[in-house]
């Protein structure tokens, strides 16, 4: 299955690796109360939170095809990777991602850039593949864009405690060692159709990607939001945030800017169709599916 989105002369495909209920909502959103949940239950369930109370998440890449480049934004969990702390992602061996990527008509040799919005385990996995027991870049001609402070942060974490950060070891550092990393500021213009801009908070130097031109544009959000409950309540953090307060400010700023405009938001983890436009809703925002 492939899903195609047209934005001016750019085509965006979703490449899905997984879509399923994963984490308990009250653990995932530590500030979510029973009262807030009940007030919003009618629209949250079953689509965004399943009947057992787990947050339904997609794990996916966005493949952006401009007239000049093929760009993969985020690279999911990946296969054959030891993830002892995350049983559902440990040593995955699924052909779903590769099949969905192939269905776009773009091969691994056609990818010019891989952009990781941040360096969490579910955004870097397909960066590398195993070759004769070594992790090597999976996209043979791609440059991999990492934000400088993000890379610095996770490199230091890995050095401190390698066992707790296996995804940095097998999916980030081999890219740097192979000299395929292009280390950029989180505010970075690739060309007139692709611009990275900082959306910090979930991680220290998280970026989102603006695609297209004003009036015909899309934003690939990465993890600046995980669920529409965080649009309704922009200050609601999730448990893996580096700085939930800053993440809340980032949501208020970005949603305030794109509210009531045609800008299409492409979320990393929202269940299908994962895309929508932002409208105001009380003190917060609503994501209207599109
Ligand atoms: Zn994520």
What this model shows, in words?
It is a single chain. With 290 residues, this protein is α+β, with helices and mostly antiparallel strands. It is 23% helix and 33% strand. It has eight helices and 16 strands. Strands 1-2-3-4-5-8-9 form a seven-stranded mixed sheet. 45% of the residues are buried. Bound molecules: zinc ion. Zinc ion (ZN) binds at residues 120, 122-123, 223, 268-269.
Could you list some keywords that capture this structure?
290 residues; alpha+beta; seven-stranded mixed β-sheet; 8 helices; 23% helix; 33% strand; globular; binds zinc ion
Can you give me a brief rundown of this structure?
This protein has helices at 25-28, 34-44, 96-103, 148-160, 166-171, 173-177, 229-232, 244-258, and strands at 3-7, 10-24, 54-65, 70-73, 113-115, 128-131, 134-137, 143-147, 181-184, 188-191, 194-198, 207-213, 216-222, 264-267, 275-281, 284-289. The chain has 290 residues and is of the alpha+beta class.
Which helices and strands, and how do they pair?
Elements: E1 3-7, E2 10-24, H1 25-28, H2 34-44, E3 54-65, E4 70-73, H3 96-103, E5 113-115, E6 128-131, E7 134-137, E8 143-147, H4 148-160, H5 166-171, H6 173-177, E9 181-184, E10 188-191, E11 194-198, E12 207-213, E13 216-222, H7 229-232, H8 244-258, E14 264-267, E15 275-281, E16 284-289
Parallel strand pairs: 4-5, 5-8, 8-9, 13-14
Antiparallel strand pairs: 1-2, 2-3, 3-4, 6-7, 10-11, 11-12, 12-13, 14-15, 15-16
The chain binds zinc ion (ZN).
Zinc ion binds next to loops.
């Amino acid at each position: 299955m492939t899903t195609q989105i047209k934005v001016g002369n750019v085509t965006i495909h979703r490449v899905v690796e997984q879509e399923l209920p994963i984490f308990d909502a009250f653990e995932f959103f530590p500030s979510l109360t029973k009262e807030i949940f009940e007030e919003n239950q009618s629209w949250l369930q079953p689509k965004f939170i399943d009947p057992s109370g787990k947050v339904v998440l997609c794990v996916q890449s966005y493949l952006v095809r401009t007239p000049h480049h093929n760009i993969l934004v985020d690279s999911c969990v990946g296969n054959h990777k030891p993830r002892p702390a995350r049983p559902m992602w440990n040593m995955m061996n699924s052909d779903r991602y590769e099949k969905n990527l192939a269905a776009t008509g773009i091969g691994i040799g056609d990818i010019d850039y891989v952009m990781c919005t941040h360096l969490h385990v579910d955004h870097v996995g397909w960066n590398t593949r195993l070759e004769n027991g070594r992790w090597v870049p999976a996209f043979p001609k791609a440059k991999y864009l990492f934000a400088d402070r993000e890379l610095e942060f996770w490199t230091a974490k890995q050095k401190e405690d390698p066992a707790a950060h296996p995804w940095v070891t097998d999916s980030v550092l081999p890219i740097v060692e192979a000299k395929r990393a292009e280390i950029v500021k989180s505010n970075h213009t690739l060309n007139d159709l692709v611009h990275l801009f900082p959306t910090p908070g979930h991680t220290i130097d998280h970026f989102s990607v603006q695609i297209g031109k004003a009036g015909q544009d899309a934003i690939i959000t990465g993890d600046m939001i995980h669920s529409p409950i965080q649009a309704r309540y922009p200050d609601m953090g999730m448990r893996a945030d580096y700085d939930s307060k800053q993440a809340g400010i980032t949501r208020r700023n970005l949603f305030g800017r794109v509210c009531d405009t045609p800008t299409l938001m492409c979320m990393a983890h929202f269940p299908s169709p994962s895309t929508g436009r932002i409208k105001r809703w009380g003190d917060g925002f609503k994501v209207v599916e599109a």
